[in-house]
Each structure stands twice: as C-alpha cells, then as structure tokens.
C-alpha cells in the first residue's frame, strides 16, 4: 500500500518542475510544500540525509523565489518580502557558469559531501551514509544553481535524479523512485528549453 503523503509529494513535485522549466516563479512555493511532505517520507524511511536536504530545500526556496523575482539578492528582511511580492527590477535571466565558478563549485560539493557524511555517521543510524550524503550534497549544489538560474543546474539535477531513483528503489519507495525517473527525463527537457532561451 502506498503512502498518501508520498503521492501528494509526487504530484506537487511534478508541478514544481514544470514551473521551473517554464521559468514560472510559483514553482518555489510548490517546492516548499513538496519538500515538507518528502521530508516526512524520507525520515520514516531512515534516509536522514534526504530528509535534512528537504529542510534545506525549503529554506533555499524562499531565497530562490526572491532571486527569480528580483534578479538580485535582498539585503534586508523587508527587501526580501518586497521581492516576493513585486517584480520591479525584472526577472533573473538565465546564465552560465564561468570556468572559475565551476572549480569552486566542485570544491564546495566535495566539502558538503564530507560534512554530510560525518553528520550521518555520527548522529544517525543510516545504512547508506556514502550514497545518501553524496546525493544530499549534489542536491544542495543543484538548488544553488537553480536559484541563480545557471543553465548547468539541469546537468546536476539529471545526476541527482538518476542517483536518487536508485536510492529510493533500494528502500522500496517505488512511487518516489518513479518520480525521480520522470524528473530525470524532465531534466533533459529543462536543459533543452533553457538552452533555447539562453541562445536568444
């Protein structure tokens, strides 16, 4: 019997990715809702890294929403709220990483992987420390790139989605495994769509 919470997260997540591909900023509140639901699902499945990642997704979704609407970081809480409600400064454009940014991103990924693995090893009973922490770290990188509308975010999400599909199947979370399989396909669609927009 499948979990209704898992099904609800499934539907909201698909709607979120559709909005991301179409550059619709309402995908960010959908990300908050779906992350909350999947946080519960993953915690109950002892995938603590993935559960923790959902909390980070919710926090980063607020930031990402503001980034997409305003096109620049907010310096105060009032500016953040204004950014969520207005588009005075225009939407954030799609861009690409510079070579030096890629280098720093790889370093950040490795550091995040190490920190996540140490936390899972020390404070949880996770049986999948290495794989769970790597997907967690990679997901944080993907969310950061998405918030900045970097076209490379879709390559990162493709890797995250394929690895997570395998991870979910290993825990018999078949609906979620299917969801990440669909996400993998949508990552390719998103990459193609954003490339066309970026070339204009």
Main features:
200 residues, 78% helix, globular
Question: What does it look like?
Answer:
The protein is an all-alpha fold. It has one domain. It is built from eight helices and no strands. Helix 3 (48-70) packs parallel to helix 6 (129-147). The longest helix has 26 residues, at 174-199. Mean pLDDT is 84; it is low at 73-77 and 83-88.
Mean pLDDT across residues: 84
Sheet with the most strands, sense and barrel status? none
List unreliable stretches of 5+ residues: 73-77, 83-88
Shape assignment: globular
Approximately how much beta-strand content do the residues carry?
under 5%
* Count of domains: 1
Summarize the helix and strand pattern as letters.
HHHHHHHH
Query: Approximately how much helix is present in the residues?
Result: over 70%
Q: Radius of gyration, Cα only, in angstroms?
A: 17 Å
Number of helices: 8
Helix/strand-derived category reads: mainly alpha
Distance between the ends: 48 Å
Total beta-strand segments: 0
Topology readout:
Elements: H1 4-21, H2 27-44, H3 48-70, H4 77-85, H5 99-123, H6 129-147, H7 153-170, H8 174-199
Helix pairs in contact: 1-2, 1-8, 2-3, 3-4, 3-6, 5-6, 6-7, 7-8
